[in-house]
Specification:
This protein is 69% helix and 0% strand. The protein is mostly helical. Belongs to the MIP/aquaporin (TC 1.A.8) family.
Length: 124
């Protein structure tokens, strides 16, 4: 509980929130059909990879740049972080992902937005 009084703890929580927000915003933004024609998988992969690499450089020294609740869970299982910190990281990551998708939804035109790069099953 002493972590709650630490400013470095709250900086790390906010870093995870904003890191995940930007990761989802740029990754999903690259997954949308901005131009006519097929969407290249390489473009999407590079966008996600470069976004993550940039975020690791930007917030890695603050929080470790987990950006993904699965990574945070692995750190928890490996006894590399406390239960309180892991819970707060995961909460911040989930809220950041929702906020990133909401920001992307609000700034993209409806013709481009579509289903916001949601994977769907095509039934023939």
């Amino acid at each position: 509980m002493w972590e709650l009084r630490s400013t470095s703890f709250w900086r790390a929580i906010f870093a995870e929130f904003f890191g995940t927000l930007f990761y989802v915003f740029f990754g999903l933004g690259a997954s949308l059909h901005w131009a006519p024609g097929p969407l290249h998988v390489l473009q999407v992969a590079l966008a996600f990879g470069l976004a993550l690499a940039t975020l690791v450089q930007a917030v890695g020294h603050i929080s470790g740049a987990h950006v993904n609740p699965a990574v945070t869970f692995a750190f928890l299982v490996g006894s590399q972080m406390s239960l309180l910190r892991a819970f707060c990281y995961m909460l911040a990551q989930l809220l950041g992902a929702v906020a990133g998708a909401a920001v992307l939804y609000s700034v993209t035109p409806s013709a481009v937005r579509g289903n916001l790069a949601l994977n769907t099953v095509m039934v023939s």
